[in-house]
Amino acid sequence: MTQAETPRSTPEEPWPVRVVSQKVSAWIAKLGWVWVDGQVAQISRRPGASTVFLTLRDPSADLSLTVTTNRDVLDAGAPELAEGARVVLHARPEFYAARGTLSLRADEIRQVGLGELLARLEKLKKLLAAEGLFDRARKRRPPFLPARVGLITGRASAAERDVLTNARRRWPAVEFRVVNVPVQGPTAVPQIVDALRVLDADDSIDVIVLARGGGSVEDLLPFSDEALCRAVFGCRTPVVSAIGHETDIPLVDYVADVRASTPTDAAKRIVPDLAEELRLIRQARQRLDRAVVGLLDRERQRLDAVRSRPVLARPEVMIEQRVVDVRGLRDRAGRCLDHRLTAAAGDLRQTLARLRALSPAATLQRGYAIVQRADGHVVRAAGEVAKGDQIRLRLAEGELGATVDG
């Protein structure tokens, strides 16, 4: 029975191990020949053996594959290959059924030169810039005085010593959480990314510093890795990059929130100088004292000027002046009132004289009388009464009753 005709496995009819190995080998063989890019983590050359074993590692992840090749192939393509070098090799995957392992069989190996590495970095730089990882608008300013600083650096390195010593010299109370990781080689990127995640998840960390001393372009390659750049971009905590010397600019410098030229410069950027801050405080206090003294002097002069005015030097003058004014107004009001009362009395006398002249009483005083019938009607003509009617005569003084005779 051919492999294509092998029935599906069941609990009653399971496949033998050899069948499973054959199927796995067949599926792997379908991939064919491929070009693979990676970093050499280990080289094993056995004396007298024609086969060379390599461990090829992904620079951005904790993954590796075993590569086997002929010594002649290695000597032809990369005779000076060393651990940590970047290579491109032409290989096909092979599954060794006897050991149940997977490896790559290479028939061509090319060591990546410095020029090609720089070209790749330039291409990656343009890609990250186009995605906005270098955008200045998203960069955050570290706090003025961080409560705790996270430091990612090599163990017992000069960079660690420079950051810790200079930061504590500037601000003795600063606290650090140091995470030591490899800063070059195939394991550097995964461990640095893990350290970033640990420090970024720590709420007590206010700023993270990536520090490494100087080195060649190849030594600083981990800090231009795409995975590391994206990890720095994704951090919630501000990141300060202090990689190499001032002339060294790996890609992580463009992504970080702050780029320090050296680890010593990073120490100056993350904490203030205590002596300088005390000097500034003294200067501010002196300026404040001068401002307060000046303000008090100006206000004292204003008070002296106000107190020297006549109104405050002799306050009774204002009252005396107001007394004179009140008396004058009272006199004017009295004269005006007297004048108006005199004029009103004259008008009243004139009105009274006219009223008296027009009053019926004045007519009666001259000897006239008013004749009224018994019902009170005033008689104006003789025809209004008849003989024998009772009438009433109103005189100037008193009244008379009378009877009409004719």
Automatic annotation (TrEMBL):
One Gene Ontology term of the molecular function aspect: exodeoxyribonuclease VII activity
Which keywords does the record carry? Cytoplasm, Exonuclease, Hydrolase, Nuclease
Domain (Exonuclease VII large subunit C-terminal): residue spans on this chain: 133-348
| Record's subcellular location | Cytoplasm
Q: Which GO terms describe its biological process?
A: DNA catabolic process
Which residue range or ranges hold the OB-fold nucleic acid binding domain? 16-110
Q: InterPro entries recorded for this chain?
A: Exonuc_VII_L, Exonuc_VII_lsu_C, OB-fold_nuc-bd_dom
**Principal location:** cytoplasm
* Quaternary structure annotation from Swiss-Prot or TrEMBL: Heterooligomer composed of large and small subunits.
Q: What family classification does the UniProt entry report for this protein?
A: Belongs to the XseA family.
- Function statement: Bidirectionally degrades single-stranded DNA into large acid-insoluble oligonucleotides, which are then degraded further into small acid-soluble oligonucleotides.
User: Which PANTHER family does this UniProt record tie to the protein?
Assistant: EXODEOXYRIBONUCLEASE 7 LARGE SUBUNIT
Which HAMAP family does the annotation name? Exonuc_7_L
Q: What is this protein called?
A: Exodeoxyribonuclease 7 large subunit
Taxonomic placement: Bacteria, Bacillati, Actinomycetota, Actinomycetes, Micromonosporales
Gene name linked to the record? xseA
